[in-house]
Amino acid sequence: MPSKGFITIDRCIEDWRWWGNPTAMSLWLYILVKANWKDGWWKGGNEPINRGEFVTSQLKISEELGLNRRTVSRYLKEFEKDNQIRLEVNNSRTKIIVINYAKFQDLSEDDAQPTAQLNAQQSTQPSTQQDAQPTAHNRTIKPLNQETIIKKKEDISNEISKKEKQKFVPPTVEEVQAYCDERHNFVDPEMFVDHYTANGWVQGKGKPIKDWKAAVRTWEKNDQAQRNVKQPKRKSLFEDLPF
């Protein structure tokens, strides 16, 4: 696939059910960028790869986008259900076929598409295929160059990473134990985990816990405070005797 050129994104993509979902958007842009813009061959000419198709693997996609492999598989199946793509999968590879690729990637002369490139990108798909996008294709198509696509993918990936970092993951008893050992405190890890698991990992007035280590330190302070409370002085057995 050439490293230069551009793909087109119709503004009606805002009506797409996955609009605003960073994972789905990242994967969809990846598919459009990777798809062949003209007919070609794979495996040294042994298998034809038509325009709008490309051969890959779910593992490769997950590595390049930094996504979980199961997540990639789930969204590919969702795209196939929506009739946006067709999948041909075997033990060695996954072929992704973008349905109606030509309809959304070919621009007319009115859209200032260079004539040479327009002629090179004539559609090879049957006209009876269903629409890959949910709304009519009668709006002006704005081309995006390769640098813009890469920048958008980076922005989406950064947003995914940011959300993943902000997402709270409850600790295991072993993790709490390790942290308590590190701090040399007397907090019971199992009691700590059981307590917050029972109340849905919230504290105070129903405020969700964002940092479980901070909660451990709070328990540690409370435990220390209780230990420092002065115990009432016990009388000697001989204190009240007359001698």
Q: What is the fourth-level CATH superfamily of the largest domain?
A: Winged helix-like DNA-binding domain superfamily/Winged helix DNA-binding domain
Number of helical segments? 9
Number of strands: 9
CATH class of the largest domain equals: Mainly Alpha
Tell me what portion of residues adopts beta-strand conformation: 5-15%
Report the major sheet. Answer: 3 strands, antiparallel
Task: Report mean pLDDT, rounded to a whole number.
Answer: 77
Q: Structurally, how many domains make up the residues?
A: 2
CATH topology-level name of the largest domain: Arc Repressor Mutant, subunit A
**Parts with pLDDT < 50 across at least 5 consecutive residues:** 109-138
Task: Compute the CA-based radius of gyration.
Answer: 30 Å
**Cα distance, first to last residue?**
105 Å
The proportion of residues forming helix, as a percent range, comes to: 40-55%
Order of helices and strands: EHEEEHHEEHHEHHHEEH
Question: Helix/strand/pairing class, anyone?
Answer: alpha+beta
What strand line-up does the widest sheet have? 4-6-5
Please tell me the CATH architecture of the largest domain by its name.
Orthogonal Bundle
Q: Can you tell me the overall shape?
A: elongated
